[in-house]
Amino acid sequence: MKEFVISEAKAETAVLVGLITKEQDEAKTKEYLDELEFLADTAGAVTIRRFTQRVAGPSQTTYVGKGKLEEIKQFIKDEEDNEREVGMVIFDDELSAKQMRNIEKELGVKILDRTSLILDIFAMRAQTANAKTQVELAQYRYMLPRLQRLWTHLERQGGGSGSGGGKGSVGLRGPGETQLEMDRRIILQRITLLKQRLVEIEKQKTTQRKNRGRMIRVALVGYTNVGKSTIMNLLAKSEVFAENKLFATLDTTVRKVVVDNLPFLLADTVGFIRKLPTDLVDSFKSTLDEVREADLLLHVVDISHPDFEEQITVVENTLKDLGCADKPLMMVFNKIDNYSWTEKEPDDLTPPTKENISLDELKKTWMAKLNDDCLFISAREKMNVDELRDTLYAKVRELHVQKYPYNDFLYPIEE
């Protein structure tokens, strides 16, 4: 009998492509590609090469110029010659159906853009009926304008024939278009059905929220992978899934937390990200209803990230879009244990950069700007967590007294 050895499945390899433009300098493009590589890693792909091109703007037909596309094509061929297959090429921006079709025809490998990669991760992470429905809706919306690309094998053939003077060979006229229309109709029907399903789910969630009693609601918000779920687990003593991956949390989780004599509700929400596709913003607005319903927002920031200030801006803009910009908010700077900086040499007279600012200086700057509405913690190392609990208790109690002045606290403090 033959012995079958089950070898470990190889991870797909990926090549990343980004543009350097007037609006997006080299440093910014590097940051975006770092994030794109993290997205690819989350989806299960290994990045083996990056390509960037300095241009005024993306090409309408192939995103990058012909020369750069030829360079990518040659790299793929060289890898294949060395028996190393390139599984996919991922572009940092959303591609049109025309761009995708042209690039795929030229390179002959799987082509993804940032949107399709995020959708793939969302599909992988979705657990509840609500999240699965949201993801499916976003996928169909993304697919609809790109249907033609999926049906290139049924396109009419060139070269007119027959007395009618129509294009295409006899027997091959029209099936591509017919199937395309059928698919478009099926997808539109499916989108309508999913929207109806989401309305029903939203009714159930509204009922659930009404049944939660007279308690203050606190929501953890922030960029993806800043440690919101870890903080949730610390405060709620729960086991919410937390991992060093993007979008580890996709489903909103609500837990009851009791600090001293005060119970309140704490919600962990999906993380925000730069260049989040419009379809996803629309689809996931109902996932962020807990943010709209919240009385207090805890904006968690990864202070160890080199570009944390831009991440703060992304979150603030998203909150503005959700109509939550005026809600009481507290900044929680997480991962202080991971913060690193480079001290300038005494004889270095150049102006200090972000990399030269110490944690103490950062603390003073942000505390001066936000008064008492910011804290510096490490959820993983449990640094300053007691201070977080105490501050949270004070803020929630203040809001509780304002909102429910005649409601006694459930747990009397023992003297």
Low-confidence stretches: 1-9, 151-172
Q: What percentage of the residues does DSSP assign to strands (E)?
A: 15-25%
| Shape category | globular
- Taken in chain order, the helices and strands follow as EHEHEHEHHHHEHEEHHEHEHEH
Distance between the termini: 77 Å
Number of helices: 13
**Average pLDDT across residues?**
80
**SS content category:** alpha/beta
Tell me the total number of β-strands: 10
How would you sum up the major sheet? 6 strands, mixed
Strand order of the largest sheet: 6-7-5-8-9-10
Give the C-alpha Rg: 26 Å
Instruction: Estimate percent helicity.
Output: 40-55%
Quick overview:
With 415 residues, the protein is an alpha/beta fold.
Task: Give structural notes.
This protein is an alpha/beta fold and 415 residues long. It is 43% helix and 15% strand. The protein contains 13 helices and 10 strands. The chain has helices at 26-43, 66-81, 97-107, 114-125, 129-143, 147-150, 175-210, 228-236, 278-283, 289-293, 308-321, 359-370, 385-403, and strands spanning 12-20, 45-54, 88-91, 110-113, 217-222, 253-259, 262-268, 296-302, 329-334, 374-376. The strands form 2 sheets. Strands 6-7-5-8-9-10 form a 6-stranded mixed β-sheet, sandwiched between helices. It has a 4-stranded parallel β-sheet with strand order 2-1-3-4, sandwiched between helices. Helix 1 runs parallel beside helix 4, helix 4 runs antiparallel to helix 5 and helix 5 (129-143) runs antiparallel to helix 7. The radius of gyration is 26 Å and the shape is globular.
